[in-house]
């Protein structure tokens, strides 16, 4: 008897809202009434809640009818129930057998994806009702069984991201970690109102849901320039990413819980000298004012002296400012030059802690950025120094795991409004891309215009696996020619296709056509609506 195909199952309208009560009840069972401040309470991810309710529903011998099934309303946003709901522990044959048992005698076309989706959702909702009956939840939680030999969470998850549909309604997939994929960098270019935020949410949702219950969960760090993802009014978005409000870092409320600076304990002096030059160049670059060579050299020396004060432990902006002032000619120490102005802003805003209190890679975070001018020194400093910190962490990681089909992805960084960080020689950002190639790290950059990704400092297009082009305010002819390798009629066709993009649509390269030298060099995708 054939196993039911449990792929591309879609959620019903408001499914998680209806499961919220049972979710809270389960979490109350699992958490102590008083938790240590150093220990977060257990939070059940969405996949686990769906699986628990599905199993509870299928355990019920209640008579099924197709009339009840037809009343289920499938979500118009296209949110799917991820395959990991069924594949964990290799239980697909069990789910298939139980479904056929419970619907035996009914005329069910198991090839009908819409009907199949309604049945799965109906069983999940049935499971919620089963578990809400008095005493049932206690009975379920007290039951234990050996995992047996079917446990399969140790394999690397396939991050084949379902982001929407091609024009012919075929599912559009981005293979993020197949063995034949050279890198995992994603570039998004789209003007305000093009659907960029929804696209980023879809990508985060897919990566998290496909990996969260495996031995290789993928965490993320998101720079939320517009404050959308950290807005309390959008708390339901966080459920899509399997995080809660503890993931929100707001530097206005409290310092970011880590130091951005390197610890050079036991390291040679020449490493500090190189690092000081890099940091000095960064602080000069994030401010738009003119800075002399003498000021830059003085800042580099101040950073070296700061490390002498801390005996090579991480330094602070306050210490850097004091050492810089001490190096000024005595008659100028009361005056504020451009560098002192930037350092004083960084000190006054108390952006960072003096020690690490969180692990940026083993947890997911969203840093709220909308309180600062996007092109100002504070916003640039936050992004620059966090990216620099991620590089410090990444350097210490072992090489990514690899199996026969996939490579491990550990973490991905998402920078919206990235053009503010691309207009200068941003070494940490370039390093993040270079290090990521064999450490299992990904980066997603989102900006308004395609030409932001190619500057005198770095060609981000040349290093990106997936340039995703949404509606543009202006279209750079040179970028289109370089990206698609086209001219003449093909060039005009792609340019017109980009100009005609609507909300939530994007253009992506067609690798098959590019390799064969024939056919359309691009494909158009309608991104599924999520937020």
How would you sum up this structure, described in words?
The structure is a single chain. The chain has 531 residues and is of the alpha/beta class. It folds into 3 domains: 9-142, no CATH class; 160-252 and 363-527, Rossmann fold (3-Layer(aba) Sandwich), CATH 3.40.50; 269-349. It is 40% helix and 11% strand. It contains 18 helices and 13 strands. It has helices at 15-30, 46-59, 66-70, 84-87, 92-102, 113-132, 136-142, 196-211, 235-240, 269-285, 293-309, 317-327, 338-349, 377-395, 427-439, 477-484, 488-499, 511-516, and strands at 9-10, 80-81, 160-166, 171-175, 186-189, 219-224, 248-249, 365-368, 411-415, 441-447, 466-469, 505-509, 522-527. The protein has a 7-stranded parallel beta sheet with strand order 7-8-6-9-10-5-11, with helices on both faces. Strands 4-3-13-12 form a 4-stranded antiparallel beta sheet. It has a two-stranded antiparallel ribbon with strand order 1-2. Strand 3 and strand 4 form a beta hairpin. Helix 10 crosses helix 11 and helix 12 (317-327) runs antiparallel to helix 13. The longest helix has 20 residues, at 113-132.
């Amino acid at each position: 008897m054939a196993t039911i195909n449990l792929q591309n199952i879609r959620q019903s309208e408001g499914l998680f809202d209806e499961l919220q009560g049972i979710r809270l009840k389960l979490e109350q069972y699992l958490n102590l009434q008083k938790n240590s401040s150093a220990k977060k309470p257990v939070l059940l991810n969405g996949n686990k809640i769906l699986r628990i309710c599905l199993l509870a529903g299928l355990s019920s011998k209640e008579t099924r009818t197709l009339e009840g099934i037809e009343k289920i309303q499938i979500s118009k946003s296209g949110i799917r129930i991820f395959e990991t709901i069924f594949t964990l522990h290799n239980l697909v044959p069990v789910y298939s057998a139980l479904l056929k048992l419970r619907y035996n005698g009914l005329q069910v076309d198991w090839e009908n994806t819409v009907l199949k989706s309604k049945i799965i959702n109906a069983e999940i909702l049935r499971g919620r009702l089963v578990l809400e009956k008095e005493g049932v939840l206690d009975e379920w939680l007290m039951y234990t069984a050996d995992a047996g030999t079917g446990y399969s969470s140790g394999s690397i998850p396939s991050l084949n991201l379902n982001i929407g549909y091609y024009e012919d309604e075929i599912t559009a997939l981005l293979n993020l970690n197949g063995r034949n994929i050279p890198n995992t960098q994603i570039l998004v270019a789209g003007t305000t109102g093009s659907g960029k935020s929804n696209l980023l949410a879809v990508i985060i949702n897919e990566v998290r849901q496909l990996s969260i219950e495996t031995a290789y969960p993928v965490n993320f760090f998101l720079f939320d320039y517009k404050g959308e993802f950290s807005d309390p009014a959008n708390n339901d978005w966080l459920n899509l990413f399997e995080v809660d409000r503890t993931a929100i870092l707001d530097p206005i409320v409290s310092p970011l819980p880590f130091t951005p600076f390197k610890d050079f304990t036991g390291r040679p002096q020449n490493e500090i000298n190189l690092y000081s030059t890099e940091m000095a160049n960064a602080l000069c670059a994030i401010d738009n004012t003119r800075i002399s060579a003498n000021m830059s050299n003085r800042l580099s020396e101040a950073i070296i002296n700061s490390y002498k004060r801390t005996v090579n432990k991480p330094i602070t902006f306050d210490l850097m400012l004091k050492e810089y002032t001490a190096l000024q000619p005595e008659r100028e120490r009361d005056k504020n030059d451009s560098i002192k102005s930037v350092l004083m802003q960084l000190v006054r805003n108390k952006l960072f802690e003096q020690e690490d209190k969180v692990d940026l890679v083993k947890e997911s975070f969203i840093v709220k950025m909308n309180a600062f001018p996007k092109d100002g020194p504070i916003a640039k400093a936050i992004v620059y120094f966090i990216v620099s910190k991620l590089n410090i962490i990444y350097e210490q990681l072992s090489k990514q795991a690899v199996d026969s089909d996939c490579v491990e992805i550990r973490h991905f960084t998402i920078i919206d409004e990235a053009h503010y960080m691309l207009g200068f020689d941003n070494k940490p950002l370039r390093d993040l891309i270079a290090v990521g190639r064999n450490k299992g790290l990904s980066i997603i950059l989102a900006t308004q215009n395609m030409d932001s990704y190619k500057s005198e400092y770095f060609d981000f297009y040349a290093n990106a696996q997936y340039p995703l082009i949404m509606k543009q305010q202006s279209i750079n002819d040179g970028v289109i020619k370089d990206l698609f390798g086209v001219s003449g009629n093909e060039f005009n066709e792609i340019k017109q296709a980009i100009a005609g993009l609507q909300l939530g649509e994007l253009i992506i390269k067609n690798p098959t056509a590019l390799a064969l030298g024939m056919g359309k060099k691009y494909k158009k995708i309608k991104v599924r609506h999520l937020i």
